[in-house]
Structures are given as structure tokens and as C-alpha cells.
Amino acid sequence: MTRYNLTIGGKSVPTSDHFEVRNPSTGAVVGLAPSGSSADLNAAVESAQRAFVRWSKTSHDERKKLCHAAAQKISDHADEIAHLITLEQGKPLNGLGSRFEMNRAGAWATYTAGLDIPVKLIQDSNEGRIELHRRPIGVVGSITPWNWPAMIAIWHIFPALRAGNTVVNKPSPYTPLSTLRMIELINEVMPAGVINSIAGEDSLGAAMSEHDGIGKIVFTGSASTGKKVMSSAANTLKRLTLELGGNDAGIVLPDVDPKKIVADLFWGSFINNGQTCAALKRLYVHDDVYDDLCKELVAFAKTVPVGDGMKDDSQLGPVQNRMQFEKVARLVDAAKKGGGKVLMGGETQKGTLFYPITIIADLDNGNPLVDEEQFGPALPVIRYSEIDEVISRANDNPNGLGGSVWSTNIEKAREYGAELECGTVWINKHGPIQPNVPYGGIKSSGIGVEFGEEGLFENTNVQVMSS
Ligand code: NAD
Fold it and tell me: 126 and 10, same structural domain?
């Protein structure tokens, strides 16, 4: 069984304790992850602080070159890491699974490596010259979740490094192996200490949030943990980017052809088994097309193969962990008790993490499957007849990550979309993101954005030079 090490100060660092990482499809142990201690965390932060002295002064061209080399390493090893993701996370190798995740990770890494951080000239006159510079912050602590473990780590690491910070990453204890391996690869091309990893219990994340050697935390995970991160970061006034949970609404207008939109609706909702922050989690459908759309959704869902992610034809795998599985089961039970009509799925088998694709009709706001983030393969479909009233139902939720409107009338759809309280509105699609477009949540879904220039700049402090 492979024992994985931490990466600290440019070296591969073994730990005395390890913990087992299991394949959610089979229960088999996939590898042994290092159980880092608070002393390991301190060593990682100190090595990152030392490396920052030179890395922050390294020229933009040199940093770009090394970030590109790191991106190339990731791409060269994409299939190896994709296998690790499938083994520890459960998602299929194919479809919108781990190979897709690594393809996207490579695209984000490459794009971010090439971004510029220009000096902005604010004034150049007889009164003087004023420039706005963007300086790196210091050590960035990155805390990542288990749903898209490798891609989200890339989203955190590359902008931080490109802007001149050094990084300590802590992956989720459910899926640490792919990230630890990726960090080993990045470390091969970076100066010692620029990239470091720490793995182990959740308490390490809390220790990072309050660590006075860390200048910024970028955190992706649940809103409840995000609030803890924010409160423990307060003492040191750390910079924060928080990408938290979502409960995205999709609104289908009466003018659609259900057959034409069903595939995009299904995958917008069930990508990665619904374990995606910006998946469509509440589907509001106009009365005129409600029955037809429900029928099309079920027919489409029946064609999607669910199975062990290592099998070539699997399109969806298991739920990643028992806690999440139980949450989905609890919400589906509440939906049934609340009068929901199960159109498909809804029954579980003992001793497995495979949760069937579940579609439940005739629910409404107030039911826990609608109000809470299910983060699993169970979609509530809600009937409406008045557009104004459905927009307020869609907004009646603490989350505000994404939302979508589906219609043949794009202008109308954009108009309604503008009323949704969320960071991204999609028209006739749900979930596509790209490295040059800022992405983030409002309300309880987060603080700040990632991606593009705006995301990169969150890894900098503004310094004004006035002469
Ligand atoms: P989680 O909050 O349980 O864990 C996320 C990370 O935080 C893990 O590395 C965990 O070890 C660490 N952690 C746990 N307790 C901590 C503490 N007290 N202080 C600091 N760190 C701590 O989330 P999860 O279950 O891994 O991920 C699922 C959630 O993440 C969902 O709500 C999902 O919507 C959200 N998510 C959001 C985005 C986004 O971009 N907005 C992307 C992916 C996932």
C-alpha cells in the first residue's frame, strides 16, 4: 500500500502516523495519507515564509515561466492523477469525471500562469505621479473540499503563486491523495518552500485559519465551516476568499421544448452526482411544461449508467462519503413525508454508498429538500405559474452562488435572470465556468471571487506609490 508524504520546504516529509483513504465504490483502502501534526503545520508555514522572501521578488516573467512549467507537469501526469481521483473520490474516469477534472485543472493552471499584473497609472501630472501596485500578501493557506479535489486545489494554488505568494495547502481528509501527488509535481519545478502540503484532521484547517504566519486563507467548503474560518481568521485580520455552498435554482419558462433542454438540465443538476457547489439544486418549472419536463427528465436519467468509476462506461459513481449519503437520505425522506411524489429513485440499499438518481416532484419551498443544500443525486422539481412569484421563491434562500433561466426568449430570460440573487446567472445552461471569468457567491455562498484578473488580484495587497 502506497504511503504518501507531506511536501515541506521542497522535501518529501514522512509522518509517523498515517490514515487510510478508502474507495467509496468498493470500501477498499486506496492509500495511506500522512497524518500531519501541528508541528508539521508550523514547519510548512515557516518554510513558506522563508521562500516568500525570494519568490515575492522574483520577476513576473520568471514566475510565469515556472507556473507554466508546473502547469505542464500537471498536464503530463493528468491520467495518473485522474486514476487517483476516481479511486479516492468515486467519480468515473470518463464522462464529466476525473479525466474531465484533470483536463480542466490543466486549462486553469495554464491560463492563470500567463496572467499579467500590470501597474496602474492613476495620475501623471504636474502635481505628481501616482501608481497602483499589486504586491503579494505572504503565505496563502489553501483549504480544499472533497468534491473536485484536484481542480479546486489548482484554483487556489496557481493564482496565489502567480501573484508572488507562497502556499500551504490542506486537502480534505476524504480525498487527500490526488492533491498531495499534484503538490509533489508542482514542487519539482518550484524553488524549495514555495509550495507545501499538510494533511490530516480537520483541526489542521482551524489551526491554519488562526495561524499568525499565514496572511490569507482561500477556503472552499461548506458555509458552516466557512463561518468558523472567518471567525478564527479575525484575530490576525487575514485576507479571505470563501467559496461556500450553494442551493442554485433553475427556472424553466413555459416556452421551452423539454426534449431540447433535458440533457443540459440533467447534467447541470447531476454533474458529479450533484456534489458540485454550483449544481442546479432546485428546479422550478412552469405549469404548462411541468408534466412533460418531468417525463423527459426521468427518461433521460434512466439512460445514465451509474457504477464503479473505474469501469469505462460509468457516468456517475457513488456518493463520496457516509456522512453525505446520510444527509441525502434524510432530505429525501423529508421530501417523501412532505408529500413529494417520487418519480425515480429514492430507495437506498444497505452497505453501499451508491445512491440512486432521484427525482421528486410536487415539492415547494419549506420542504428541507428544497431549502437545504442536498449536495447529492436528488433533485426536487417545483411547479409554478407566475414568474414574479417564482423569482421570489428562488431568492428565498440564504445561498447565492448560481442560478439559471431556461427559455427560447433570451432577452426575457436575461431580464428575469437579473433579478436572481446570485453570483452567476446562466441562460439555457447551468454550471459552465471558465478560467477567465470571475466566479463567486453572494449572501451565504461566499466572499470574494476566483478566476480571471479579479480572482488573481484577491491574492494581492494594493500599494499606492505617490511621488
Ligand atoms: P467542509 O466544509 O466539511 O470541508 C472543507 C475543508 O475544510 C476540508 O479540507 C476540511 O478538512 C476543512 N475543515 C473542516 N473543519 C474546519 C475548520 N473548523 N476550520 C478550517 N477548515 C476546516 O466541506 P466539504 O464537505 O469538504 O465540501 C462540501 C461543501 O463545499 C458543499 O457545501 C459545497 O457546496 C461546498 N463547495 C463550494 C464550492 C464553491 O466554489 N463555492 C466548491 C466546492 C464545494
Answer: yes
